[in-house]
TrEMBL record:
Keywords: Membrane, Transmembrane, Transmembrane helix. This is Uncharacterized protein. The keyword Transmembrane helix applies. The keyword Transmembrane helix applies. It comes from Natrinema thermotolerans. The chain crosses the membrane at residues 44-63, 75-96, 102-124, 150-171, 191-209, 221-240, 246-268, 280-301, 313-335, 356-375, 381-399.
Length: 406
């Protein structure tokens, strides 16, 4: 029992470290975008650095429990973290055009090694329950088992997307790219952002949010969202900006995003728990709908109907809106700002961070889609302020918890 408690404490500590590093990358990403760095540099900071570091950190604690297991390799987060950090920084530096090509290659290889550690640890943990039929759902939540099983079944698909995207990046860096592989750049990014990150948000969201909000999600809606979110990204990637396959993928991904937004909105409507992260979750739902609409526009609208800046708006709404605001909203429930002992850190600071993130994104997207460049810069710097406040809240709580637990 003592050994089990020590292992759990180790996983918790390194999980929190992963999230703390991810929060730092969130701030770095917002600053890099506001400073005008190229997208090849900012995408790794936002997707690898922020989204995936937080996803990895929380997955180490949540996924095993959702599969009624304990993490089989408690030190896996500690082993993966340096590879993930170096991989993110190396890829971002290469994207900025700094240093020799070997920097980018080293970054991609380190990232892949970290992914292998993560997949091996999670895979070995759930090896005798790969589809998640055993859900760890208690008798009081028995009515949620159907949705829990649907959500668990999406996790192997998430892992497949993560492995595929990472392996393709390594193959390209080493000149071994297969001829049938998706195109580099945005196509591969969709394997990560849509196939891995968004699908995992759908899966964990359907398990976590009903319990946090004390509400229920409809199993049929969960099935539609998880199916569309599981199939759509691969169709987008293999025929990126192509013909019918790309359009079908865009349609499925749009259904998944709108369905998840509807689920979050309905859960919030059912819940009487109006806490500090609620506004961020509703904002994330709105951004999911906007991402879906823009994606459908790219797939079905005639050429020239959307401005070229719409692609940047789509990327910012997806990563800085849907994914980021979901993470912010949920993290404020895992780490309540009110528990901080500093007088200037609390619910008011957290609400200010959400307001700044929502307001900054709204200004930026309005400027990008409305061809009003004067709005874009202020919007991005307002997002920097929101990220700084979010980091201040999270890091304060992390430091205080670390001092308490040693």
């Amino acid at each position: 029992m003592a050994a089990s408690g020590t292992a759990a404490a180790t996983v918790t500590r390194w999980s929190r470290t992963f999230v703390a590093v991810g929060v730092g990358f969130f701030l770095a990403w917002q600053v890099a975008v506001a400073a005008g760095l190229p997208r090849a540099a900012t995408v790794p900071l936002g997707v690898y650095g922020f989204v995936f570091h937080v996803v990895f950190g929380k997955a180490y604690t949540l996924v095993p429990s959702y599969f009624a297991r304990e993490l089989a390799v408690p030190l896996a987060p500690a082993i993966q973290l340096p590879f993930a950090v170096i991989g993110t920084i190396g890829t971002a530096v290469a994207g900025a055009g700094v240093g020799p090509p070997a920097v980018g290659t080293a970054g991609v290889v380190c990232w892949f090694v970290g992914v292998i550690v993560f997949v091996a640890a999670i895979g070995w943990t759930v090896r005798d329950n790969p589809t998640g039929r055993e859900t760890g759902t208690g008798d009081t939540d028995a009515h949620r088992r159907r949705v829990d099983r649907l959500a668990n079944a999406a996790v192997p698909v998430v892992v497949a997307y993560l492995l595929a995207g990472s392996a393709l990046e390594v193959a390209r860096a080493l000149g071994l790219e297969p001829t049938i592989a998706p195109a580099a750049g945005p196509a591969t990014t969709h394997l990560f952002a849509a196939g891995t990150a968004a699908l995992l948000v759908f899966a964990i969201g359907f398990r976590l949010l009903p319990r946090l909000l004390v509400a229920d999600v409809r199993p049929a809606l969960a099935a539609v969202v998880l199916t569309g979110g599981g199939v759509g990204p691969v169709l987008l990637a293999v025929d990126f900006r192509g013909g019918p396959v790309f359009s079908l993928g865009a349609g499925l991904e749009a259904v998944a995003l709108v369905g998840f937004a509807a689920a979050v909105t309905d859960l919030s409507r059912q819940s009487d728990r109006d806490r500090v992260g609620s506004r961020a979750l509703l904002g994330a739902a709105g951004c999911a709908g906007a991402v879906a609409l823009l994606g459908l526009g790219f797939a079905f609208a005639s050429a020239g109907l959307l401005p070229t800046t719409a692609y940047t708006a789509h990327y910012r709404l997806a990563v800085g809106g849907f994914l980021a605001l979901t993470i912010v909203g949920i993290s404020y429930r895992f780490y309540p700002p009110a528990v901080a002992s500093l007088s200037w850190i609390g619910d008011r600071t957290a609400r200010a961070s959400i307001t700044a993130l929502l307001g900054g994104l709204a200004l930026e997207v309005a400027g990008l889609l409305g061809s009003v460049p004067a709005l874009v810069g202020p919007g991005r710097w307002l997002s920097v302020l929101g990220a700084a406040l979010y980091a201040a809240v999270c890091w304060t709580i992390f430091l205080e918890r670390s001092s308490l637990t040693g």
